[in-house]
Amino acid sequence: MTGPYPPPGGPYPPGPYPPQGPYGPYSYGPPPDNHLVWAILSTVFCCVPFGIVAIVKATQVNTLWYQGFPAEAHRAADEARKWAMWSALSLAILFGLYLLVVLVVFLIVGASASRLVP
Amino acid sequence: MSTVYRGVPARGARAVALALAGPGAVVAGAGVACAAVWLGDPTTPGGPLPVCPTKLLFGIDCPGCGGMRMAYSLLHGDFSAALHYNAVALVFVALLAWSGAAWTAGRLRGRAMRSWLHWRWTPHVVGVTFALWFVLRNLPFAPFSGLFV
């Protein structure tokens, strides 16, 4: 990449474009990835409020970017990813607990099967 | 930065395989989920598939509630039942198919393609949609009571 800056956000190739700083001019550079797809998926499939927080954070990414607060936009993008991740993780934890409960119930039923069956 | 976005289309079996690895994993995961829903039959209560924690704990529908039954109905070609179980999730299935196709095409072309996910106001619309959907389907009077599943 060119310049002393970190590469600009967005999957654009290092082409023959003029060198561009990470944060400006705002009207040309793409805003950072707001991880919206993960926020939506974790809200729809994980049924936990964390997904809503992820969507709100994703909302702030573009707004902050176009208002001229690139650092804050990047921070909001990171937050959106973090909340979506925790939303998915909490579902995984809940599902693990569910499996654990089912397993324990089966074990109890199995252990007392001799008494339940006449 | 991902290595598939080089600005030139993927050439050769190796590059194409690299570009298709991500979408392939997503399709495989979705296939496993569809198989689980097909076999588990969430439309019949008491099946092996767990009920949404929100519904279990609070007795209300969350924005995603009915999603598995919607998927089950969709897999069996019952479009009106799918619409009944979770209309918003059904719309998002179509939208995600679109963005998934754009993602795959972008990886093959070596240049990211934009889809509805990248529009300026998409996060806002999605957030408002989810919030409204959350409230509307829990209202206990007609015509909204029909949205509770």
TrEMBL record, chain A:
<feature type="transmembrane region" description="Helical">
    <location>
        <begin position="83"/>
        <end position="109"/>
    </location>
</feature>
<dbReference type="InterPro" id="IPR051423">
    <property type="entry name" value="CD225/Dispanin"/>
</dbReference>
<dbReference type="InterPro" id="IPR007593">
    <property type="entry name" value="CD225/Dispanin_fam"/>
</dbReference>
<feature type="transmembrane region" description="Helical">
    <location>
        <begin position="36"/>
        <end position="56"/>
    </location>
</feature>
<keyword id="KW-1133">Transmembrane helix</keyword>
<protein>
    <recommendedName>
        <fullName>Interferon-induced transmembrane protein</fullName>
    </recommendedName>
</protein>
<keyword id="KW-0472">Membrane</keyword>
<dbReference type="Pfam" id="PF04505">
    <property type="entry name" value="CD225"/>
</dbReference>
<keyword id="KW-0812">Transmembrane</keyword>
From TrEMBL, chain B:
<keyword id="KW-1133">Transmembrane helix</keyword>
<dbReference type="Pfam" id="PF10825">
    <property type="entry name" value="DUF2752"/>
</dbReference>
<protein>
    <submittedName>
        <fullName>DUF2752 domain-containing protein</fullName>
    </submittedName>
</protein>
<keyword id="KW-0472">Membrane</keyword>
<dbReference type="InterPro" id="IPR021215">
    <property type="entry name" value="DUF2752"/>
</dbReference>
<keyword id="KW-0812">Transmembrane</keyword>
<feature type="transmembrane region" description="Helical">
    <location>
        <begin position="12"/>
        <end position="39"/>
    </location>
</feature>
<feature type="transmembrane region" description="Helical">
    <location>
        <begin position="117"/>
        <end position="136"/>
    </location>
</feature>
<feature type="transmembrane region" description="Helical">
    <location>
        <begin position="83"/>
        <end position="105"/>
    </location>
</feature>
